[in-house]
Amino acid sequence: MALISVAEALEHVLAHAAPLDAVTVPLAEADGRVLSSDLKSRRTQPPADVSAMDGYAVRATDVQNAPVRLKVIGEVPAGKPFSAKVGAGEAARIFTGGFVPDGADVVVVQEQTSRDGDSVEIQKSAVVGRNVRTKGLDFKVGETLFSKGHRFRARDLALVAGMNYPDVPVYRKPKVALFATGEELVPPGTEPGPGQIVYSNGFALAALIRSEGAEVIDLGVVRDNLEDTIVAVRRARDLGADILLTTGGASVGDYDFVNRALAAEGVDLSFWKIAMRPGRPLMHGLLGVMAVLGVPGNPVSSYVCSFLFLVPLIRKLTGRADLVAPTETATLGCDLPENDERADYLRSKLADGPDGVVATPFRTQDSSMMAPLAQAGCLVIREPFAPPAKAGDACVMVRLDR
Fold first, then answer.
1. Which one of 231, 303, 314, 331 is least enclosed by Cβ atoms within 10 Å?
2. Could you write out the three-class secondary structure of 179-213?
């Protein structure tokens, strides 16, 4: 297959993806989930006119010539409606959240009163509605307050609770099966032997998957042979994965078995080479309803490719509309040479400059180097065959932390 562009590759990845089936989850578990249907309020808030302050519920006509003295006919605490009606020359002691009694149309704050037994002096006049939260001020029964496709934030959950929903309809979390290939990989905490390296990709990718609202099926490290790789692919399918993400083994070397294992299982690849750096050997295909994404084994390549392709795919399955991280304009912090036929995604530092954000690519962009990836704030995007650029020029970048 010929190299295809990043845009073409992303189009292929998203072409057959659609939001998963709807499920109902407890409100306490709804943060970050995406609504599968509109959410209408089940109640009116507040359900009646209530006091916004501690004070006295009175008639505005009785206090327009304050100071005046009124008879106190009772108390109205929150949660206990007052059965009597406030008439001419009367007042009711009321507390924040208390239902405003019939007849009263204003609440005078207690700091503007002086109590003496069963009477109170109102020291300042007040207009109708002062310190009263009217019925339905916040929302009304039947009002659509959240639309299908909305992703819940922490502050949304208070409103949903106030709408009287103990649980909500959302799209199911995608299941992402993950395995790495490589005889040379050993777990962290191990002293690597000759030719061995510490396995790192899976930890970053699993965290990225979870941060996007998906579940991880960790299949670990698979040995470099065709039989074990086929078994891992089948296991991902049998465990109901919506996405299979593989790292390593996606190239064409003698010990790269992912491509052959996928072919043996009937996966029809839509592409397996892409015109970008890092990440040229990137694969995508379908095994039944399971999407397959094979990213390179180098740590930077695996993360950047997952950031650019896996994240939008997860987001589409979860019902989100904001699939792709937005690009921004920044000031370039160093000179860059002309580019070749591949798009570059350069790990770069971000800093505030006199005219806005400055993005400075690291001098060395080797795809095995994890420290610059951890230190980067963004990826500076260089299109294929981009001409040389100077420090101070405008550049396009995408933030890594979203």
1. 231
2. EEECCCEECCCCCCCCCCEECCHHHHHHHHHHHCC
